[in-house]
Amino acid sequence: MKKQLSVIIPVHNEVESLDICYKRVTDVLKNIDLSYEILFIDDGSTDGSDLLLRKFALEDEQIMVIFLSRNFGKEAALSAGIDHVSGDYTIILDADLQDPPELIPQMLKVQKEKSVDVVLMRRKHRVGESYFKKQTAKWFYKILNRLSSFDIPEDIGDFRLMNKKAIDAMRKLPERNRYTKGLFAWIGMEIYILEYKRDSRVAGVAKQNYLKLFELAFEGISSFSIQPLRFSIYFGVLTAFLGFIFGFYIIFKTLFFGENVPGYPSLVAVITFLGGVQLIGIGILGEYIGKTYIETKTRPIYLVKEFVSKKAHNE
Ligand code: UDP
Ligand code: MG
Three-class SS of residue 84? Predict the structure, then answer.
């Protein structure tokens, strides 16, 4: 029997990209020597993407669609995909075609030749991204890798091929704070990295803005490292030590040179500075407590509203 390839495509309001996405992906998959399924995850689209996906699924036996009950975010949509694929190999693609499906045959070939568990796709050029975004991305990886106990490879998104072993490993991770990039790296396994040129979106706009990216960055750091908590301890010890020295200095100064009252501005400066430092420390602490709180509720990562495929429909 032929081996099977599954392709996961998360979709949130991508009505303009979907037709061409479906066509390009299908064109590629028809020409490889594997049977295939395409699993679209509709992550609470409100622009008509859902109607289009339903149409694909009812016309084409190879297509399945999982409709989530609302917008849960790309990370959750990917979890839904990973939980439901059945192929020997799984590839994750973005619906906006920033990850060219034409690279799939090459990914399969590399997997076979090197017999690795995961083929990662590294972006060579970030087309259509500003200098600022490139620079911030670079710094983010530097900090993240310094802080976490395993390496999260740079410039690698969700576009990847995984075999059954890697998919099974992903299914074992129960956390609700899903920083997929980190989770993918956490499982380890034999990997091989291919380089590719990431395209601009075919249509529509990216749903990530800078604030969201910053939040994602902090999410990444706090999900895989408790170093920030330790930093606030170090910083606390350092300021306490400096305060202590300063206290001694003032006592000696008063004993030997007498006291003249001025010093109000410096006092205010020190108070506001320390106040700020304390708030940051509490904020960091709160972040981790919040994460723990969310995890303890053990709510599901996503909820499925409906599962649509031609086979299921005809039964
Ligand atoms: N996406 C999703 N849920 C969301 C946001 C995005 O499933 O809440 C999908 C989106 O449809 C696309 C992919 O995730 O297929 C990547 O999204 P986007 O292009 O906005 O992000 P970027 O390319 O900047 O990573
Ligand atoms: Mg995109």
Answer: helix
Does residue 206 have its Cβ closer than 6 Å to ligand 1?
A: yes
Strand partners, 304: 68
95 C-beta closer than 6 A to ligand 1 = yes
Q: Is the CB of 81 under 6 A from ligand 1?
A: no
Write the DSSP assignment of 22-39 as a string of letters.
HHHHHHHHHTSSSEEEEE
State which of 16, 39, 74 you would mutate to test the pocket of ligand 1, scoring each by most atoms of that ligand within 8 A of its C-beta: 74
At 156-199, the pLDDT tens digits run 889 999 999 999 999 998 888 888 888 888 888 888 999 888 87
Return the HEC string of 113-133: HHCCCEEEEEEEEECCCCHHH
Q: Return the ligand number nearest the Cα of 201.
A: 2
The pLDDT tens digits for 255-281 are: 888 766 677 777 887 888 888 888 888
How much is the average pLDDT of 15-31? 93
Distance 263 CA to ligand 1 centre (A): 55
* Site of tokens 């976490």: 148
Q: How confident is the model at residue 251 (pLDDT cuts 50, 70, 90)?
A: confident
Residue pointed to by tokens 């939980």: 83
Q: Quick check: 117 and 192 in contact, CB under 8 A?
A: no
Predicted structure pTM score: 0.82
Q: Are 93 and 159 in contact (CB under 8 A)?
A: yes
Inter-residue contact 56 to 308 (CB < 8 Å): no
User: Please, what is the average pLDDT of the chain?
Assistant: 87
- CA-nearest residue for atom 19, ligand 1, is 206
Q: How far apart are CA 45 and CA 67, in angstroms?
A: 9
Residue nearest to atom 2 of ligand 1 (CA): 74
Q: Is 266 left (phi over 0), alpha (psi -120 to 50) or beta?
A: alpha
Residue 193 and residue 157 in contact, taking contact as beta carbons nearer than 8 Å: no
Bridge partners of residue 294, in order along the sequence: none
